[in-house]
Specification:
homodimer, alpha/beta, Aldehyde Dehydrogenase, Chain A, domain 1, 5-stranded parallel β-sheet, 19 strands, globular
Chain lengths: ~550, ~550
Amino acid sequence: MNSNPISIDNLEALYSNYTNRQFYAFYPEDLRAYDTSFNTNALAKFQNTLNSDFHQMDPSASLLGEEVSPFLNVGLGINYNAYSNDILIQNSQNAFLDWSAFSVNKRFEVLCDIFNSLGTPQVFFDLAYATMHTTGQSFMMSFQASGPHALDRGLEVLAVAYHELNKFPSSVNWEKDFGKFSLKLFKNYKPVSVGVGLVIGCSTFPSWNSFPSIIANLITGNTVIVKPHPKAILPLAIIVDIIQNVLDKHGLNKNIIQLAVDTVANPITKILCEDPAVKLIDYTGGNSFASYLYTLKNKIVFTEQAGVNSVLVDSSDNLDKSIQNLIFSASLYSGQMCTAPQNIYVSKDGIKTPDGVIGFDDFCDKLKIAAEAMSQNPKAGPATFGAIQNDNTLRNIELKTNDFNEQILLSNSINNEEFTDAKTQSLTIVKTTSKEKKNFQNEIFGPFLIVIKTDSFEESLALAKESAAQFGAITCLAYCVDNIKMQQIEMEMNSVFTPVSFNFQGAAFVNQHAAFSDFHVTGGNPAGNATFTDSNFVNRRYFWVGNRYYTETF
Amino acid sequence: MNSNPISIDNLEALYSNYTNRQFYAFYPEDLRAYDTSFNTNALAKFQNTLNSDFHQMDPSASLLGEEVSPFLNVGLGINYNAYSNDILIQNSQNAFLDWSAFSVNKRFEVLCDIFNSLGTPQVFFDLAYATMHTTGQSFMMSFQASGPHALDRGLEVLAVAYHELNKFPSSVNWEKDFGKFSLKLFKNYKPVSVGVGLVIGCSTFPSWNSFPSIIANLITGNTVIVKPHPKAILPLAIIVDIIQNVLDKHGLNKNIIQLAVDTVANPITKILCEDPAVKLIDYTGGNSFASYLYTLKNKIVFTEQAGVNSVLVDSSDNLDKSIQNLIFSASLYSGQMCTAPQNIYVSKDGIKTPDGVIGFDDFCDKLKIAAEAMSQNPKAGPATFGAIQNDNTLRNIELKTNDFNEQILLSNSINNEEFTDAKTQSLTIVKTTSKEKKNFQNEIFGPFLIVIKTDSFEESLALAKESAAQFGAITCLAYCVDNIKMQQIEMEMNSVFTPVSFNFQGAAFVNQHAAFSDFHVTGGNPAGNATFTDSNFVNRRYFWVGNRYYTETF
């Protein structure tokens, strides 16, 4: 663990790490960097939390909670204080008056303290169990994604904000020479905050996807209402709780950030979205809700939606390693990542390799073998797949499988010795042809791969491009060792705002976007309109206002 | 005239001028800095342009043109090649393929050349006559606004773009240490352009308001269709023509920028807006068209709309000078500036001055005297007021005047000895009370001031704030020498994203926003969603895309 706390003095250097795009991580992702006692404590704490009230009961709130552990397959029994929309909005508006009036510097001080309170080994392990037993992510992924990776993503936002909010002097003495006299004005420049920000969490990456938005809103002087998915509240409840404690320690209004709790049966998100006081909405989730958000007036909306991620397999120096890599990426967290590959395009002419051309059917066979090896591996299998967050995913995959005439591999449950009741599912692999567009040009969430036989490399690329433009894409994985084709792939996929990962093997996975180096979502195609982290992610949350004072004319 | 041309080597320094916010101008605004021969040439050129075809007739185009000089009160008789929407879009899409593929550096080279071709004394005088005889701006304003000021605003955009587009390295060798081995990836980062940009000009500031958008689109690799107001084509036709010549000189597709010409009776703007190829829309003009633009899907829209600009008169060290300043700002270009003051709030308790309290009615009398002196001044009158661009402005003011029971000053024509047929109108000043909100809470375009008697300073401020929040405001002028109240004004008006100019006298005018120092429009209230020039103005026109190449693992 990094022993130096985050302070305002670090932020300029952090911004250099952001712009130079080299590898950088403030918080180690390697479990071995952390004392195991934190893990032991965290597990005990988590077990104590089960079947109890997370918050001390507030008489003005109702207690709600309906999370279910995908590993234990039982309800967590944790209840949270749930407030009415009116109270949440009123609290947030009151807190905004205080928070937005603070100086930028003061906000950075508080935010640094928030990072130092959240970025501790104990919190990381607490978040790991909370994430694991709400999302179904494996323990390792839960630890990394909700702890160090989420915090590093947030730190990236803080660094960008530091640069952006300090771009201009807070005031200048401006002087214009008119020859015979000089006009003098005193001018000041202020980044003016916009109001209440609503951050809507998702059920699969509650902390990783929402934390950057929380930080972006707070540092720009806006208040935050965090509305987690009703099935993945705990990680965000822990984060909100710690931030509130820091605010309290600084003598600030705790309602600068609030947790909004609802249930699947009685959702409150739209009511919050439509409240005129809510000016900013950050959303991670499906397309239909995002489309609804785009129809709302006078809101600044940041989204990460669904996409159809493509794999282009044209040629490889080592096809077996390529296939292993691809299968791992599709299996990781059972394909429940927004970055997971789905559609694999292979020309009917097969794949060029050092061992000659591998035909389409041979490739499918190799995929099947690799997928089976992955899911049947007693240790790597359960650790890679984790568990299925939502029963709908299981049902949907069963349904979609039937849309395809040819199945390469049907899914099974994964044998998980530690959690025998875990809701698991191995990879389904189906095949089809480029003629059957309607079957593959939409997101099929979960562990599902479609191998599409095309007429040519050109058709493969054209379909991947079309699909990204029309339905969105966050990633594209390409196996290709032909320089001309690689350039073509990059140019065509980039033109629909989709980044390409070429020839990934070994420890390089298309799913993973590293803070300080990889942009997550470009914002240019229907997979979302925002990016972790470009300057727009921060700068669209406030407006510069400059005032001028006449001083004198000589 | 600055003798050093703009080159890539200047742009880092220009960006420092942008961030430091001190006075900076690359192009001198003072007519005396320019040899008078350019003026003589320009006038002769303008006269030759009258009743002729601006473009060499293209058989595939139709010839259109219906501009009328507000000074001469006759049609200019200039015809322009007008192409069908389909041709414009097709040309622009074809040009986009070339232009977007160029390196950022190459685009900066071309853009520098565009500035050096546009930023010449001859072009400035050519633009002056073109602007004067389409917009009705006085010769001086036409020269300054369309030439040096517009170019400086464009240069500011270029400087911001230089910083933003070069923020990241074009590629890095990224290495992540896993302890036993190291993962190496080659990564590149590209600002990917979005497509065809439509820039919709207005009739009052065709060049000043559209030029920054043109530059922002071009430098981010997007193509531009410039659609001027049918009554103010010439200034933009000159600009597009010169840019096309530069493109041609560089061997580039001239259709990277195109002029789209229509008539009031057969407008084509909506058809262009709705074309799926048009991804970016820059618009200056009224609210109803802007509201329409916000309903369009998959467009990135930048607007400067109308607003209601307020004046708060509480106290003054020198009320006469304050009034002179205010009257000048309201008279300048006959109030046809988006920054012109309209609503003057004065408490019934009067205005504190070194000579004692000046009552509401005395203030109105002083306003009237100053306004009459301004319009009747044989030299300053016509030079300040210029001419009325649109007959509707005259009709509307007549109509609105009747909404008010009490008129302080009725408008007259301005005696203009040089242009005896000029369409002119002096200031109308009416008075009302804070009870009559419906009469003053909307924009009344043109030379029209409303003095509103309020119950108190607090009511004055509350009304100005409410009006800015609901109807937008680009400026607020405040006369107040009480420190506590000044802070209140700044805080309250800034909270609705309205900048305040305090106690302006002499050569400081609320209408004027200086490039490199003042933001023009904040983007936060209904007066517009974009700012000259924040980084969003550039960064929302492209998306960062990063590609990753697996190199090796050790």
